[in-house]
Amino acid sequence: MSANLKQREIFFLNDSVSVDSGGRVQSMFLRSKTWEKDVLATHICTFNFRPQYRNIFNDIHKIKKLPDNVFFMNIYEFFSEDKTLFYSDSVVTFDEYERKMNFVQSTKNEQVFEYKENNKLLQRIKLNTNQSISMIDYFEDKKRIKREIFRSDGILLRTNYFNSEGFLAQSDFFASDGRKYLASKYNEEAQMTYILHFQKNGNVNQFDNEKQLKDYWIFQLNEMSNRPYFFVEDHRLDSCVIENSFTNKIMSVATIHGNIYGKDGSYGSPLRAYTKGTLENLDKFGAVILLTDEMKKHITSQFGERDNLFVIGHPFLVNKTRPTVSKNLNRGVIISKFNKGKRIHLAIEAFANAVKEVPDAQLDIFGQGDEKQSYELLIKKLGVEKNIHVHGYTQDAIGEFQRSGFSLMTSKAEGFGISILESLSVNTPVVAFDYNYGPKDLIEDGLNGRIVPNGDISALSRTIVELVKKTDSLNKLSKNTGKVVEQYSKDKIREKLLCLFDYLDDYQDELPVVVQSLSQSVHSIIKSDTEFKLNLEIQIKLTNTKNNPACYIHVITPEKMEPLLYKGVHVDGKYLFEITLPLEMLPIILKSPLDPFLLGIQNKKHYQMFDLPIIKEKIQSFLM
C-alpha cells in the first residue's frame, strides 16, 4: 500500500452529478466505497451551476449509501465562500409572488407564466416542480434583456444580462447573503473576456477565461491537501490537470469510460472527439484507467504500449443478503438510458419476431430518456403491447434482473457495461450484441450468456426463441454466471487500485528517447497458402535512456480489422521481430497510401512511433 495512504485524499472531477446519472457517475460512487477504509477522504467535485445542488448531494449520499468520508464539493461554493450556497430548507412558492402581479399560465408549458402590459411581454417565470420560482426573464421590445436565477427559498443566486442581439453580455453571481462574488464579462459574440472574483476580505482576482477559473480551484485543492490524487472523470476537464495554469504538480488519473471510436463504434472508425484529446495525451497523465482488456488492445495498437495504462473495471458490490425470488424464465429485461445509442428499437423488433414462436415471452424495459415515446409507438405498430412493456426509471435494477430469465444488451457501444455485471450477479444470463466494449470481457458465449453478431436482429430473435423454448439451456447458463462477477468484487478491484496508487507514488518520469540512428533489414520472407512470415532486425542508437526500451511493430490497415502488434526481442544490441500476416491482408497493406508498418519505442509512459518503409518495399519486391 502507498505510504501514508490513510492521510491522503482523492478528488473526483466531473462536471455534474445526480441520483440517476449514468454509468460514469455511478462508477465514482462505487469506487469511493472500494477504498473507503484506505484513504482519509474522497471528494466528488462538480463544476456546473445548480441552485439546489446541496440538497441533491444529500439525497445522493443517502440513496447511494455512500461512506461517511465521501464529500461533495462545487466550484461555485468554493468561490462564494458560502457552504450553504446551494442549500435551502424552505420553499417560497409562485403563489406568493403571483399576488403582486397578474401572471397568466403559458399555453405551451404549464410550468411557465407570463406577465404582459398592453399585449407586450415584460416577464416570464419558470417554476420548479415544487412550484418555487426557478428563473425570471425580463423583456423589452420582445427581446430578453435579463434573467434572474433563484434558489427554492427565493434567494437570488445569479443574474444574466443580454445585449441587443440576444447574446450573453454579463453574468453576476451572488452568495446567500446577497454579496456578489463572481462577475463574468462577454464580448458581442458572447465570448468570455474575463472573470472577476470578489473575495470576502475585499481582494479581487481576475481570470482570463472559465478554464483558468477551474484551474485555480483545482490548484487550491491540490495545495490544501497532502499529495492528493485527482481522478478526471469528464474528459472536458483533462486540460485543467495536465495543463493547469497554476501548477504542474498534480497527480492525475484519467478514466476512459466510453467507447473510443465514433460512427459505428468499431475498431478502425474515427476517434470520438470526446476521448481523442485524452488518447493523444496519454503520457501527460500520471495514470490512465481502461475498463477492459479489449480497449487496451485497441489503444496500444494505435497509440503504443505505456506502463501508465491500467485495466481496472468497475467494482461490483454484491448484496449477499438479498432475498431469493423466483425467476420468470419467459421474461426478458432491459435496464438502460432511453437514447438512440442504446438501440433498444432493435431489441423490440427482435422480440416482436420471437413472440410469433414463443407467444408467452415477455420483455420489460426500464429507464428514462427522449426515446421512450418512439419505443411505445414501435411496440404498438408491431402489435406486441401484451408482450413488451416500457417502464420508467427503477431504483431496484438488481431486483428486476433477478426476477427475469435473461437480459438484453443492444448498445451501439459502451465503455464497460455495468448492467451486464448486475444481471450476472443474480444468475440472470445476458444476451448481447458483439459491440465494443464489455460483452467479450464479461460474457463467455454459451457459458454465462450469449453473444450475437452486432446489429443482427434475426440472430437476436433466434437466440431469444431458443432460450425461452429450452429452459434447460437457460438454467445451465444461469449456473455459470458467478465466476466473472467475482473478478470485479470489491476486494479484487481494491487490490488493482492500490497498485495504481503505488505506481503514482513511486513513479519517476523519464524523458522520451531520442533516436540518433535507426537501421532495418529483412532477413527472410516465407509465404505459405495461408500466411506471410517475415523475420527482421532493427538496430537503434538511443539517448535519454539507460535501459533497453521495449520496441514494437504496429501493422496498420485502413480496414476495420483487429489490430496487429508484435514485440521485439532484444539480443546483442538489436531487436529481432517475427511478423506473421494473414495472406488476405497483403493486398490491403500494399494498396495503403500510408506506411502500414510502424516502429513503436516505449520509455515508461512515453511512446514514439517511426515509419518503417523498407518492410513494405521488401514485400513488394518479393511478390514481383
From TrEMBL:
Residues 333-481 form the Glycosyl transferase family domain. It comes from Enterococcus thailandicus. It comes from the Bacteria. It holds the Pfam family Glycos_transf_1. GO terms for molecular function: glycosyltransferase activity. This is Glycosyl transferase family 1 domain-containing protein. InterPro entries: Glyco_trans_1.
